[in-house]
């Protein structure tokens, strides 16, 4: 059985290192299991490019990442909103309500003089204005279905010679990252990371690294997506 370092030596090029497929497969499974995000849509696991080329400089020596997305509309409908997104979701919901009221008044002049506080789905239906209630609801949903929450988990590998690693010159290392926010909205992300040394030159070291990665993924995910 080849050691991890032997795998790296075989796959080393002038442009960097690649993780062996066995490690990539493990990372893929671990990434999918790290967050129980109800009704969120997961992307395929992607490798982090580790070879520099024209116009691109490789920051790591390998790794993987995965994304999950969900709309504000779906989060509210399912009742599952990660705590880190709750305040922003409330703001988006209020913005959606304001826009829905404005569009509904424009579309149905018969309620143009209604107080905004009296315009919502239930009250419109209670006043025999079912068609208007449906229009209002569709406007509100349309606004919130265009805003996406985005979760990402990453596992990044650094050789001890990589100056971007947390233990440069001392040890190979891993950085495990989780972040969540709203796509296209700046300064709203929650972010957490864990860094630790790894010794991947023996089967025992690889097993320990797997356990450390799983532990770190659970820890950083709990900080941002629960």
What would you say this structure looks like, in words?
Strands 1, 2, 3, 4, 5 and 6 form a 6-stranded antiparallel β-sheet that branches. The chain has helices at 4-11, 21-33, 72-78, 86-107, 121-126, 130-145, 203-224, and strands at 41-42, 46-47, 63-71, 148-158, 172-182, 190-198. The chain starts with a helix and ends with a helix. It is built from 7 helices and 6 strands, in the order ααβββααααβββα. The radius of gyration is 24 Å and the shape is elongated. The chain has 2 domains: 4-71 and 149-224; 84-145. Helices cover 42% and strands 19% of the residues. α4 packs across α6.
Short description:
The protein has 226 residues and is α+β, with helices and mostly antiparallel strands.
Our measurement of the CA-to-CA distance between the termini, rounded to an integer number of angstroms, reads 40 Å
Q: What is the number of domains?
A: 2
Question: Uncertain segments of ≥5 residues (pLDDT<50)?
Answer: none
Number of helices: 7
Largest sheet: 6 strands, antiparallel
H-E string: HHEEEHHHHEEEH
Proportion in β-strands: 15-25%
Taking all Cα atoms into account, the compactness measure Rg is: 24 Å
Oligomer: single chain
Shape: elongated
Helicity, as a percent range = 40-55%
Query: Mean pLDDT across all residues, rounded?
Result: 86
Number of strands: 6
- Structural class designation: alpha+beta
């Amino acid at each position: 059985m080849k050691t991890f370092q032997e795998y790296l030596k075989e796959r080393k090029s002038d442009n960097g290192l690649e993780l062996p497929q066995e490690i990539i497969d493990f990372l893929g499974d671990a990434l999918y299991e790290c967050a129980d995000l109800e009704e969120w849509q997961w992307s395929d696991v992607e490798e982090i490019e580790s070879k520099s080329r024209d116009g691109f400089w490789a920051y790591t020596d390998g790794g993987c990442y995965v994304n999950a997305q969900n709309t504000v509309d779906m989060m509210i409908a399912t009742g599952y909103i990660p705590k880190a997104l709750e305040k922003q979701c409330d703001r988006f919901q209020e913005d959606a309500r304001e826009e829905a009221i404005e569009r509904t008044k424009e579309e149905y002049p018969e309620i143009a003089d209604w107080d905004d506080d009296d315009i919502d789905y239930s009250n419109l239906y209670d006043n025999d204005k079912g068609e208007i209630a449906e229009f209002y609801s569709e406007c509100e949903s349309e606004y919130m279905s265009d805003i996406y929450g985005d979760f990402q988990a990453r596992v990044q590998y650094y050789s001890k010679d990589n100056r971007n690693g947390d233990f440069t010159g001392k040890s190979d290392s891993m950085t495990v990252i989780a972040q969540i926010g709203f796509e296209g909205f700046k300064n709203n992300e929650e972010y957490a990371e864990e860094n630790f040394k790894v010794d991947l030159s023996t089967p025992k070291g690889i097993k320990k690294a797997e356990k450390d990665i799983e532990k770190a993924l659970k820890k950083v995910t709990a900080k941002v997506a629960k």
